[in-house]
């Protein structure tokens, strides 16, 4: 793995501005650029906080560790920043109205933002598809897919928008809330 220069580290600090929205088309396995959305500012603030926390975690402990280590470190960093987060949140999986199992989300931030953590050589299209499935099953508006096994976090960061996000957020709310069934 190539060494990261101080200049690249400084450039990494501004990565939240460079983070792309991504949409996964049914006909494609690769996510495509989606364009700027009008997500509520509370969700955008949570996303920014998570990205900054990921940068700090990566800067402190570096790449190459197990996903579970990054998960715990992210929880510590988010708690330090007073950002509400839970790890290994169970989400029921329903098929035709029947519960067929549960899935565990790595991190759920502010009850709205799914954070899927990886420590892999490279992110694959299936990782984005998996994150989108979590968003749809849990009716969450936005997800971050973060790979820590990279020289700079921004190279391992994908922002994935649930195509139905408008239907899962209560409209005209002063603070966004998720619709629940």
List strands and helices in order, with pairings.
Elements lengths: L5 H8 L1 H4 L2 E3 L8 E2 L7 H21 L5 H14 L4 E11 L2 E12 L3 E6 L6 H14 L3 E6 L9 E5 L20
Parallel strand pairs: 1-7, 5-6
Antiparallel strand pairs: 1-2, 3-4, 4-5, 6-7
Helix pairs in contact: 3-4
Write a structural description:
By secondary structure, the protein is an alpha/beta fold. It has one domain: 3-Layer(aba) Sandwich (Trna Endonuclease, Chain: A, domain 1), CATH 3.40.1350. Helix content is 34%, strand content 25%. It is built from 5 helices and 7 strands, in the order H-H-E-E-H-H-E-E-E-H-E-E. Strands 2-1-7-6-5-4-3 form a 7-stranded mixed beta sheet, with helices on both faces. Strand 1 and strand 2 form a beta hairpin.
């Amino acid at each position: 793995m190539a060494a990261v220069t101080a200049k690249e580290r400084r450039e990494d600090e501004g990565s939240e501005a460079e983070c792309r929205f991504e949409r996964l088309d049914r006909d494609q396995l690769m996510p495509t650029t989606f364009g700027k959305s009008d997500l509520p500012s509370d969700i955008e603030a949570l996303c920014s906080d998570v990205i900054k926390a990921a940068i700090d975690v990566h800067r402190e402990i570096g790449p190459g560790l197990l996903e579970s280590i990054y998960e715990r470190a992210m929880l510590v960093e988010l708690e330090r920043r007073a950002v509400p987060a839970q790890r290994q949140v169970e989400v029921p999986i329903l098929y035709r109205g029947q519960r067929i199992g549960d899935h565990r989300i790595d991190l759920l931030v502010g009850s709205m933002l799914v954070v899927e953590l990886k420590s892999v050589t490279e992110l694959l299209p299936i990782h984005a598809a998996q994150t989108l499935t979590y968003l749809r099953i849990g009716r969450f508006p936005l997800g971050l897919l973060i790979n820590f096994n990279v020289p700079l976090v921004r190279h391992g960061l994908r922002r994935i928008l649930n195509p139905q996000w408008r239907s899962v957020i209560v409209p005209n709310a002063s603070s966004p809330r998720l619709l629940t069934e």
